[in-house]
Amino acid sequence: MRILVLFSLALTACAQDKAKVELGRYLVEEAAACGFCHTPKTADGAFDKSKWLKGTTLDIQPIGAPPKDWHKASPDLTPSGKLWMKWGEASMLKYLQTGLTPSGKFAGPPMPVYKFKPEHAEAILAYLKTLR
């Protein structure tokens, strides 16, 4: 009987984890559309799925002189990227909730400021952790 209860609890936890990852995928890919700036494109303009959210040189810029803090490249958002190594998971979570980097500043243009609810920020991290 104990094994059945433990198995049932494990299945429930697995289903909850899967739902969290799926919510994070939706928020990253559809709502925030992170791939547009954080994924390189192939020669035909399609996203390079082999480098999904690995960062890239940005091909956008405001007309005229860009602001002095305008970023010319986007960082790798995957757990193996320098951003995760530099910030750590706790700072990534805080950034998604407050829009503030570990130094207490906004990321700078063209990155918009997002302030996700804690459960949404956690879902985004759960999804990003699935990427390699």
Features:
mainly alpha; Cytochrome Bc1 Complex, Chain D, domain 2; 132 residues
Question: What gross morphology would you assign?
Answer: globular
Structural class: mainly alpha
Q: What's the level 1 CATH class?
A: Mainly Alpha
Number of DSSP-assigned strands: 2
The poorly predicted ranges are 4-13
- At CATH's second level, what is the architecture? Orthogonal Bundle
What is the string of helix and strand elements? Answer: HHEEHH
Largest sheet: 2 strands, antiparallel
Distance between the termini: 39 Å
Strand content: under 5%
Strand order of the largest sheet: 1-2
CATH topology: Cytochrome Bc1 Complex, Chain D, domain 2
Number of separate domains: 1
| Average pLDDT level | 90
Gyration radius, in Å: 17 Å
Share in helix: 40-55%
Count of discrete alpha- or pi-helical segments spanning 4 or more residues: 4
Report on the architecture of this protein.
- The structure is a single chain.
- With 132 residues, the protein is mainly alpha-helical.
- The protein is 47% helix and 3% strand.
- The protein has helices spanning 2-31, 35-38, 82-98, 118-128; strands at residues 56-57, 73-74.
- Strands 1-2 form a two-stranded antiparallel sheet.
- α3 runs antiparallel to α4.
- It is globular, with a radius of gyration of 17 Å.
- The model is unreliable at 4-13 (pLDDT under 50).
